[in-house]
Amino acid sequence: MEAELQREITVPFTVEQDENGSWYAAAALNPDSFANGEGATREAAIEDLKAAVVALAEVVGVPEQLVVTVEVD
User: Fold this and answer.
1) C-alpha span between 43 and 6 (Å, rounded)
2) Residues 62, 65, 70, CA angle at the centre, nearest 5°?
3) Best CA proximity match to 26, nearest among 11, 36, 16
4) Cα dist from 70 to 13, 24, 37, 52, 73, whole Å
5) How many Cβ atoms sit within 10 Å of the Cβ of residue 24?
6) Three-state SS sequence of 10-36
7) Residue 37 parent element (H or E)
8) Mean per-residue pLDDT for 42-58?
9) Is pLDDT at 1 greater than 80 in this prediction?
């Protein structure tokens, strides 16, 4: 039996509230693969998005990452 590996990834996302008060979050693992989440609160939409990102990564794979440190004001 092969051991399951885990890898932590950082995924930029957007989150917005619509005119009815619902929250929507979105992220892309690559230019062709998007995940979406929704919820009654900002936090719920982000949690739903996390689950969608995990499911999407299982299908399309984990993207390569580049880590860069930038200065912000």
Assistant:
1) 24
2) 150
3) 36
4) 18, 28, 28, 28, 10
5) 17
6) CCCEEEEECCCCCEEEEEEEECCEEEE
7) strand 33-39
8) 96
9) no
What length is written for the chain? 73
Token pair 């230019």: residue = 31
pTM for the full predicted model? 0.81
Contact yes or no for 39/52 (Cβ under 8 A): no
> pLDDT digits over 3-45, tens only?
677 888 889 999 999 999 999 999 999 899 999 999 999 999 9
Residue for token digits 């989440």? Answer: 37
Position 27 scores a pLDDT of 96
